[in-house]
Amino acid sequence: MSDIKRIRNFSIIAHIDHGKSTIADRIIHKCGGLTDREMKQQVLDSMDIERERGITIKAQTVKLNYKAKDGQNYKLNIIDTPGHVDFGYEVSRSLSACEGSLLIVDSTQGVEAQTLANVYQALDINHEVIPILNKIDLPASDIEKTKKEIEDVVGIETVNAIPCSGKTGEGIDEILEAIINKLPAPKGISDEKLKCLLVDSWYDSYLGVVILVRVINGKLKKGMKIKLMSNNQEHVIEKVGVFTPKPSDIEELNSGEIGFIITGIKSLSQTKVGDTICDSVNPIDEPLAGFKPSKPVVFCGLFPVDSSEYQKLKDGLAKLKLNDASFSYEPESSSALGLGFRCGFLGLLHLEIITERLEREFDVNLITTTPGVIYKVHKIKGDILDLQNPSNMPDPSQITKIEEPWIKSTIITPDEYLGSIIKICQDKRGIQTNLSYSGNRAVLSYDLPLNEVVFDFNDRLKSVSSGYASFDYDISNYREGNLVKLGILVNSEPVDALAMIIHKDFAQKTGRQVCEKLKDLIPRHNFMIPVQAAIGGKIVARESIKGFKKDVLTKIHGGGATDRKRKLLEKQKKGKARSKQFGKVEIPQEAFIGVLKINKENS
Asked: Cα-flanking dihedrals φ and ψ of residue 61, to 5°?
């Protein structure tokens, strides 16, 4: 039997917290990838933040040697993928490097929204899928019900589904044998011209850019000259290796294998994920199809609380960008918040992870502005503007229509919470497209505008369903919306950091809430300060912050309205008018943070 027939490349897919990383740990331990002393929980989750939150953010790979019951030695290449909707891009490219998938479903919770999303991605690229029922050691485990749910909701056979427990290790031997017997070996010819898929790349401060590759045809050897087909750059391979899960150097990677190469590239921008690598001496004609590039969908401004930390924030963003190609940023300045950056993310969890890493790893205190999405603004002259910052919105008289991104969402929930969830979706301008049942669980499909989902939708969903509902979405298309820019004026000066694009029906209510909040949070000055919310030139809400009252008549005793009293009051009036005209209103940081929390409090 040739070597390639004894290789199995597979991904592990599941919803968040259904036990992907734990089962990967058990498989690694069983195959002797790490000794008992080196083993720790979630061995593939290398970042502190992954370990604390119990989620996988970056897909990880491991090469293991396994001696099967037939006496043959097999090479197993695992790719452990993230389960969260924001990192679906990581999942899609990991699946493209494999021939099969292990679908892990928690036997106490059943099928969840992201189980569906990930398994459909695997089936779309013709993966062989092995269903595995995890957590059978728990008293709430119901194997038969979970099997029926997989058949009803996902639509795959569960006759050979494997019950197991990642915690106790029960069923791991059966999983390993199923990988050998049911998953196909990769196709590829070692004697052909070199053809490789660039699966991932990241920056290492000692080695430069590390490139994760899947060899399709040919061989990769140390000292070989290779070419990246997207930019025609040529490099010499300095190092070839695999993760076991520790990085270890090897002489060559053959067709069908997954490993890493180091070529001395210093810039991550040269290594496009999904690129094709070939031999520069004997190149191939056609590159591989590659992957769709990931596009940020959520944008927000990041500003340092202390302006002296701007450089620290800039350096931190540059370093995070080295290892996360899906994250983008550009400089931005705000009259209220000073210098900062406009950043693009794949979703809200991605935003949360980046801001938490900036605060933790680079010690920067941050203010984040309200998250927003990209709108397409159609102007009278026919040109289309991609708008991500509300303060750059053109004058309404120049606009014919504004389009906003919509998503197709899947929500899986126990039946008793269905009414509350439908109400939330309707409040968010959602359009129901489908409703089906599996046992006492409803599978609900909704079209929703992304800007309504982006702030607090997931939090509200979890709170009304006691945490039982799960949610997954795909960006579908752009649709015209009745959208307006809601501007906030303090002392007749627009505050760009608080501007937002909002549906016209919600504008007045939100404007009123923002004004009320600012009235409480902006300290009193010597003069009265009007706080207004405006759509174009029309004021839709107003509050007034009263000025300090100084009694200039205290020293004058008795008497009625004398000339002297009148003069003093006139003088005071002029002084207040002058200070109102030239005086600067100091808006404290707490006021911005308070306004950003308004949407959360509403929910």
From this structure: -120, 150
Are both 120 and 59 inside the same structural domain? yes
Instruction: Identify the CA nearest to 326 among candidates 50, 80, 91.
Output: 91
Residues 454 and 500 in one domain: no
**The amino acid at 358:** L
Rounded to a whole number, what is the distance in angstroms from the first to the last CA of the chain?
62
**What does the angle CA 58 – CA 370 – CA 488 come to, to the nearest 5 degrees?**
165
Judge if 391 and 365 occupy the same domain: no
**Residue in the block written with tokens 């427990």:** 165
Q: Which two tokens stand for residue 489?
A: 């004026």
Are the beta carbons of 588 and 522 closer than 8 angstroms? yes
Give how many domains the chain has, as a whole number. Answer: 5
DSSP state of 372: B
Strands 338-345, 276-279: pairing is unpaired
Tell me whether strands 276-279 and 233-236 are parallel, antiparallel or unpaired: unpaired
Instruction: List 410's β-bridge partners, or say none.
Output: 445, 472
Positive/negative CA dihedral, 517, 523, 529, 534: negative
What three-state secondary structure class fits 127?
Answer: coil
Q: Which residues contact 282 (CB under 8 A, 6 or more apart)?
A: 193, 194
114 three-class SS: helix
412 contact partners, CB below 8 Å, separation of at least 6: 111, 112, 113, 116, 153, 441, 442, 443, 444, 469, 470
Structure-block tokens of residue 497: 């950091």
Cα angle 562, 566, 571; round to 5: 150
Q: Contact, 126 vs 96, CB < 8 A? A: no
pLDDT for residue 19 is more than 50: yes
Residues 143 and 8 in one domain: yes
Which pLDDT tens digit goes with each residue over 126-149? 888 889 998 888 888 888 888 888
Q: What CATH number does residue 55 fall under?
A: 3.40.50.300
> Domain end: 481, 501, 526, which one?
481
Q: In this structure, which amino acid lies at residue 488?
A: I
* Tens digit of each residue's pLDDT (9 = 90 or more) over 400-449: 888 988 988 888 888 888 999 999 999 888 999 999 887 778 888 999 99
- In terms of residue numbers, what domain contains 513? 485-602
Distance CA 598, CA 557 (A): 49
Instruction: Mark whether 353 and 428 lie in a shared domain.
Output: no
Q: Is residue 292 part of a domain?
A: no
Which residue is listed with tokens 């790979």? Answer: 61
Distance CA 32, CA 39 (A): 10
Measuring CA to CA, which residue among 453, 471, 350 is closest to residue 405? 453
Structure tokens at 491: 């002392």
Same domain, 145 and 20: yes
- What are the distances in angstroms from CA 67 to CA 41, 74, 215, 452, 560? 24, 6, 23, 52, 106
Position 16 pLDDT exceeds 50: yes
Only one residue has tokens 């290779």, namely: 226
Token duo for residue 359: 């605060």
Judged on CB neighbours under 10 Å (0-12, 13-18, 19+), 549 is: exposed
Same-domain check for residues 455 and 490: no
Tokens linked to 567: 């003069």
> In whole angstroms, what is the distance from residue 38 CA to residue 36 CA?
6
pTM over 0.85? The answer is: no
